[in-house]
Amino acid sequence: MNADATENLLLQAMGAERASALLPHFEPCDLGLGMPLETPGEPIEYAYFPERGVVSVIVLAREGGEQVEGGLIGREGLTGQTVVLGGDRSPHLTRVQIPGHARRIRADRLREVIERDHDLQSWLLRFAQLMSIQTAHAALAYARLRLEEKLARWLLMCHDRIESDELSLTHEFLSVMLGVRRAGVTVATHTLEGEGLIRARRGRIEIIDRRGLRRVAGAGYGTPETEYERLIGLPMSREDRS
């Protein structure tokens, strides 16, 4: 495998010389729906570089069982930023929300590699910075955006990370991601569908009018995507890639 052969944008952007320290340690793996990649409080075993699919970082309340999404990771990045930052475990749940496949590296091996290669570590820290930006804007969205604006933002982010216009998403999953009851998801979905922006079917949402979704999401979408291009050098949003 070489950096040009992978579909992971972060590996592509870092180039063959930086990626050469990682490539011998990668193993391919499938990302099955609901597969946990990191369990709260447990040592992280692998860092995953997705090539297809979408992974969610989910923040869990200490009591009451409440949960909400803290971030999305697809082929633009990697899981296991805690390892890159020098830790070995996270309080958050990281699991697959849209199936796909990835390259993975053992956490202890990644730790050894970046201890020897500080240029590579610095590059991976850029993505850790991007995740902190994304999490901050998720908090802003939950605090300030109306539900249909949150849904539009989240659909745009998923759409950026897959090749299809059709997303495999249930209302139950969306209720967790948006931090609302399923009835609220139904109302927001009907609102966007009524405006001709999406088409919702059982377990699936098709993006019909991306420009319209951006209009609804407003300032809730765009800053993390702009920062990705600035720090990594590749466009994140679909409009900028076309």
TrEMBL record:
<dbReference type="Pfam" id="PF13545">
    <property type="entry name" value="HTH_Crp_2"/>
</dbReference>
<keyword id="KW-0804">Transcription</keyword>
<keyword id="KW-0238">DNA-binding</keyword>
<dbReference type="GO" id="GO:0003677">
    <property type="term" value="F:DNA binding"/>
</dbReference>
<feature type="domain" description="HTH crp-type">
    <location>
        <begin position="149"/>
        <end position="215"/>
    </location>
</feature>
<dbReference type="InterPro" id="IPR018490">
    <property type="entry name" value="cNMP-bd_dom_sf"/>
</dbReference>
<protein>
    <submittedName>
        <fullName>cAMP-binding protein</fullName>
    </submittedName>
</protein>
<dbReference type="InterPro" id="IPR014710">
    <property type="entry name" value="RmlC-like_jellyroll"/>
</dbReference>
<dbReference type="GO" id="GO:0006355">
    <property type="term" value="P:regulation of DNA-templated transcription"/>
</dbReference>
<dbReference type="InterPro" id="IPR012318">
    <property type="entry name" value="HTH_CRP"/>
</dbReference>
<dbReference type="InterPro" id="IPR036390">
    <property type="entry name" value="WH_DNA-bd_sf"/>
</dbReference>
<keyword id="KW-0805">Transcription regulation</keyword>
